[in-house]
Amino acid sequence: MEGSRLEKGPAPDAEWAPGKxxxxxxxxxxxxxxxVALDATILVSVLPALAVDLGGTATxxxxxxxxxxxxxxxxxxxIAALSDIFGRKELLVSSVFLFTLGTILCAPIAKNFPVFxxxxxxxxxxxxxxxxxxxxxxxxxxxxxxxxxxxxxxLGAWALGSVLGPLIGGLFVEHATWAWCFYLNFPxxxxxxxxxxxxxxxxxxxxxxxxxxxxxxWVGGLFFIxxxxxFLIGISWAGIQFAWKSAQAIAPMVVGIIAVIVSVIWEKxxxxxxxxxxxxxxxxxxxxxxxxxxxxxxxxxCALYYIPFFFTAIRFKSPTNSGLDIFPVTCFLLPxxxxxxxxxxxxxxxxxxxxxxxxxxxVGCGLLxxxxxHTRTAIWAVILAVFGIxxxxxxxxxxxxxxxxxxxxxxxxxxxxxAFMRTLGMAIGVAIGGTVFQNVMLKKLNKLGLPAAIxxxxxxxxKNLAQMDxxxxxxxxxxxxxLAGFRGVFWTITGAAIASFVISLxxxxxSMDKLLETKFRLKGARNPLPPSTGAPSHVYDVKRLTVxxxxxxxxx
Length: 556
Known about the structure:
This protein has 22 helices and two strands. With 556 residues, the chain is an all-alpha fold.
């Protein structure tokens, strides 16, 4: 069968192993990835207190998280392209600097929401750059077959930060102030700004600044970033600030879609050096893996935002305890991700992990729907553990699947596109989750004859519920409204997980045994690459990859 033939390739390069230089790069990327992941979720437990202190509304609190994810997503592909021109180290340092600047604006400078939003948006651009550059640099220094094993350092840091964020935020808001959620970033920023110039020493092509600026695809970047921003703003407004059918929601989405289409046409027919390579989307398998990455971010962030909120609103847990209650996800997500990384490297296959991951994640999401006010601790802990195992399997397998499907010379951009699609899914997930929660809860409250204002300010109203008598009919009815909203979100991510499982069946088999092809070489590397001529140094064919002596290695 063709699938079996494509899966087979030469044995992995037994001689490749990271040296001190490579390990130093991995450690540096893991440290700053932990910072970005913490920052993305640390405000989950803080939003009500943040809204009160800055004199904002529930909508302002919603945008405190959304503004970060929006700017984080839209700039990632363009930053990856800029790093091809200006250098990996230069873009990574710039990203950490922007993240630091945004952190300073958020705290201690911000005294109102407009300044805070500016800070979060700048943070998002920096965070997006850190995420995508981590992917790109790994694709430069580690061969694909070994990449799952060693990228687990960064994935583990990212997953740990994502899940610990709500707990740390809860501790700060209960025992200190929400500003410490941002002060926490400063040590990481300082470490990054020191370590990156020391260890991230990848060769960069020598040319004048004007020459480099002339190579930048400004037109494509403007249409793409502007279009994605407009689309995500429309998605975020719809059902929260404006009705889905309103012009205020539809117009930015339509304008955004048109702008993105224009950028795609420009990339294919007009750009001299396109920042979106058409070759990244060269097959149905590529499109399927990118869709899996988008749903992966969608589901994870819906869960990370609404599971702690569930424990706060339904079980009246403190922000700290709500963060602790999500620990079963952490305890199983990290080990399952690391195990899949090691097994994938050893056997050179990844589709089984994608399929198993989506099947287990679908079960975990479906079980979330069963949770209510009386669910015993042992039961919801098992439910969260199942969810964590499934998602941990996906963190590695989807990422590697995307790079295996891509051409060898596109591996770095494919890794960056994975990061973009996952982050885009996070932004859409928070927006759609908020819309679903609010509208399902609103519908339930209307049936119960309760005020609609409760749904519009659901986070803040939890304090009122906690002060009511447990047997108060209004409290009981309101909790049922909250429960309906949470179940709406959990059904949504269950549908997304099932759809992703079906989509993943389209992915075909591709070899992981590909030679490392890059123009960016790590100085002092243990296994230095031969000098790059700017063109592939081996012969690659779309249907049959031959390496050196003609050994078939699968699709490039």
